[in-house]
Write a structure and sequence with these properties.
Layout: E1 3-10, E2 13-20, H1 34-38, E3 41-43, E4 53-55, E5 65-68, E6 71-74, E7 81-83, E8 90-98, E9 103-110, E10 123-127, E11 163-170, E12 173-178, E13 181-187, H2 191-198, E14 215-218, E15 225-234
Antiparallel strand pairs: 1-2, 3-15, 4-7, 5-6, 6-15, 7-14, 8-11, 8-15, 9-10, 9-14, 11-12, 12-13
Length: 238
């Protein structure tokens, strides 16, 4: 079968995003099934266009984020990107892949009234656990609610392979899933939440975790990263 590979480098970091001819009967990437559409799911990336995204506090998409071989990929320094639309309660699923030592993150309820995406939005950590120092601490490992809640265990696929994540946000309740397993859950604003935030680097950020609605953000942490099959379903009225 023919096989292509796109290699993107940033300093010493390297990620290989490869795709092979899809076998007969395999599900197409970056598409919605009829049942998903009927259930209210929408695609945030169709494999070719970045029209649903723009740079944080920018009018357009930075050049360093591109649609490559059916992935939404950060291939060179670009800054964080956010969805054009905002979301309150939602169910988000996505596939992600990093190279050796890779680091990124998916944030939610991000406001552009704050200076940086992490000043308001909690983070679903994206990481090569084995190759990055953050993987040595469960609180900052892949799938964690960054620096606040540790995942159940390391369920990441080997570096360079795809992982499927789910981020469920309903009111104050949040769940992180990885490859079909619930990693953690928490309640924003609970006594436990407040205790953890107070003891963290977020303690001086008045907007952190306080926004009822905001953008989904993908982080440029200086490493190549690829996403695909980004799908979201609103759980609120709009």
């Amino acid at each position: 079968m023919p096989r292509t590979a796109i290699v993107a480098a940033c300093g010493a970091a390297l990620i290989v995003m490869s795709a092979s001819t899809r076998p007969a009967g395999a599900r197409a990437q970056n598409t919605l099934t009829r049942d998903e559409s009927a259930a209210g799911w929408m695609s945030l990336f169709d494999g070719a266009s970045l029209e649903r995204w723009r740079g944080f506090k920018k009018g357009g998409i930075p050049e360093g984020w591109r649609a490559l071989d059916g992935t939404l990929a950060r291939v060179q320094p670009a800054g964080d990107i956010v969805t054009v639309e905002t979301f309150a309660d939602f169910d988000l699923v996505f596939d992600w892949k990093v190279g050796t030592g890779g680091n990124s993150g998916v944030f939610f309820r991000v406001t552009e009234e704050a200076d940086l995406v992490w000043h308001s939005g909690p983070e679903y950590q994206i990481l090569d656990n084995a190759g990055h120092r953050d993987g040595k601490d469960a609180l900052t490992a892949a799938g964690s609610n960054y620096a606040l809640h540790a995942p159940l265990r390391d369920l990441t696929a080997p570096v360079g392979e795809w992982n499927t994540a789910r981020l469920l946000v309903r009111g104050s309740h949040v769940e992180h899933w990885m490859n079909g397993v619930k990693l953690l859950e928490y309640e924003i604003g609970s006594a436990d939440w407040e205790r953890r935030v107070k003891a963290s680097k977020f303690s001086s950020l008045p907007r952190y975790g306080r926004e009822p609605r905001g953008h989904i953000a993908l982080q440029d942490h200086g490493d190549p990263v690829a996403y695909r099959n980004l799908k979201i379903r609103r759980l609120d009225a709009r």
